[in-house]
Amino acid sequence: MPKSSKKRLLALTVNGRPTKVKVSPTWTLLRVLREELHLTGTKKGCEQGDCGLCTVIMDGKTVNACLVLALQAEGKEIETIEGLGTAEQLHPLQQRINGRHIRAHPPHGKGQMQVFPGAELLIEGQVLRD
Q1: Cβ 129 vs Cβ 62: under 8 Å
Q2: How many domains does the chain have?
Q3: What are the beta bridge partners of residue 79?
Q4: Which of 5, 37, 88, 127 is deepest in the core (most CB within 10 A)?
Q5: Cα(113)–Cα(75) distance, rounded to whole angstroms?
Q6: Residue 120, domain CATH
Q7: What is the pLDDT of residues 64-82, one digit of tens each?
Q8: How are beta strands 8-14 and 77-79 bridged, if at all?
Q9: Model confidence at 85: pLDDT above 50
Q10: Are residues 47 and 69 in contact, defined by beta-carbon separation less than 8 angstroms?
Q11: pTM
């Protein structure tokens, strides 16, 4: 196995919980959140940073998790949609949009796609906490 593909230990805080996970240097934060940490509220969309489905908050700023290499999140605080509430007790913002989708035009003019307003929800939640 080439040296560059060896997994490395990544330490970060996700939704307030210190987390350590072994990652490949080529993995994105999106892959780690969804496939390694099983936080599937962060969605995989265009994988080019255009649709916003993968938006998370990293150290207080919104980022597209599909464009951030996992190792760039070393020591960072990450907040996902799951961090706002639980399945048993939704955050008021989650309750407000539960089941609602926004229609958006994807890049490259290939029809329409459904976009869950996760980015807006995370931003509103962050503003309410500050």
Answers
A1: no
A2: 1
A3: 57
A4: 37
A5: 34
A6: 3.10.20.30
A7: 999 999 999 999 999 988 8
A8: parallel
A9: yes
A10: no
A11: 0.72
